[in-house]
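Whiteboard transcription, Tuesday session. T.W. wrote the structure tokens on the left side:
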């Protein structure tokens, strides 16, 4: 019984073909805000990432010259989706991450066309050593955002390669292209501001009427809306800054550009419908002492319009007849 086992193992070793393994190292991939808004089936990022084999990466080696066939065996877990790049259609495979798939294609080195069909092959190859290039790209596989899941890697299935001609003297008759699993990252969520810079006109007012007001009274009014599109599941706060006077923090008056001339009035900013002026908290560089809620989004991205009222406020009984120019910055803060 022991003798038969020894003979059987010897026979197996005589007729087996050596296999060669090559590993490609995909770059880490960051899902951006534009990727999050892409439609199902869309190719993400910059499209293809290509990997080129070099001498020493041979997947098949024969001692003879002659014709043989190279088969690429695409064996990813199919999602049922297809996507098109140019005139070519590709099966989309699962990465193990909900909403993110990949497409893959390969080619024998120095052959122009890329192949992506299962069990596809290249005919009439006469090289003694076969090098295979490959490329991958990521595809959106569900509508809505691809939710972050922390430290995670995409699963890219290996690409087996077989070379076939039973009459040839093979040294290596098959190989496999492996892909080191790339790390998937998520770009920090931010809102897209659609009204980046606007001018608010509070109009002109009679000097005598303004002088008759009490210190602290408002005059003039204009409303302006700020429109942003925010991703899902976000809490967004905001703070305001006095552009012309960065150290003006904690006050509820945005000072005029010519405040050193003591014009006697300034500007106050309110959330529309509210009577309490917003206090100045500065921008990112000066902290956020006074924050206000801008919006909280649900399970989907939302377009948000937030209205603000702007009013002059009398600061002194010595009011000067002058233009009232002031600038304010609204900074969004993500929680």
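and on the right, the sequence the group agreed on:
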């Amino acid at each position: 019984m022991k003798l038969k086992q020894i003979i059987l193992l010897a026979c197996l070793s005589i007729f087996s073909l050596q296999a060669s393994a090559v590993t490609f190292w995909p770059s880490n991939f960051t899902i951006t805000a534009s990727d999050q808004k892409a439609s199902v089936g869309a190719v993400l990022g910059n499209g293809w990432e290509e990997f080129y084999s070099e001498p020493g990466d041979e997947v098949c080696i024969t001692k003879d010259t002659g014709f043989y066939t190279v088969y690429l065996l695409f064996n990813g877990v199919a999602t049922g989706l297809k996507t098109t790049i140019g005139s070519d259609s590709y099966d989309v495979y699962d990465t193990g991450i909900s909403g993110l798939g990949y497409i893959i294609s390969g080619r024998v080195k120095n052959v122009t066309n890329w192949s992506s069909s299962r069990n596809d092959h290249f005919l009439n190859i006469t090289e003694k050593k076969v090098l295979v290039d490959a490329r991958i790209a990521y595809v959106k596989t569900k509508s809505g955002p691809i939710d972050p899941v922390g430290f995670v890697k995409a699963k890219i299935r290996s690409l087996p390669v077989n070379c076939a001609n039973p009459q040839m003297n093979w040294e290596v008759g098959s190989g496999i292209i492996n892909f080191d699993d790339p790390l998937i990252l998520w770009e920090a969520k931010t809102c897209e501001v659609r009204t980046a810079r606007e001018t608010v006109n509070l109009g002109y007012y009679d000097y005598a009427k303004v002088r008759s007001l009490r210190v602290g009274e408002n005059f003039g009014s204009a409303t302006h809306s700020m429109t942003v599109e925010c991703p899902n599941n976000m809490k967004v706060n905001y703070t305001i800054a006095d552009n012309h006077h960065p150290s003006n923090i904690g006050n509820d008056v945005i000072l005029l550009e010519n405040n050193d001339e003591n014009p006697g009035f300034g500007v106050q900013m309110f959330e529309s419908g509210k009577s309490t002026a917003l206090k100045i908290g500065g921008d990112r560089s000066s902290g956020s002492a006074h924050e206000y809620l801008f919006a909280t989004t649900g399970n989907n991205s939302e377009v948000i319009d937030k209205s603000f009222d702007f009013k002059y406020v009398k600061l002194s009984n010595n009011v000067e007849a002058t233009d009232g120019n002031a600038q304010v910055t609204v900074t969004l803060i993500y929680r």
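Someone added at the bottom: DSSP finds three helices and 22 strands in the chain.
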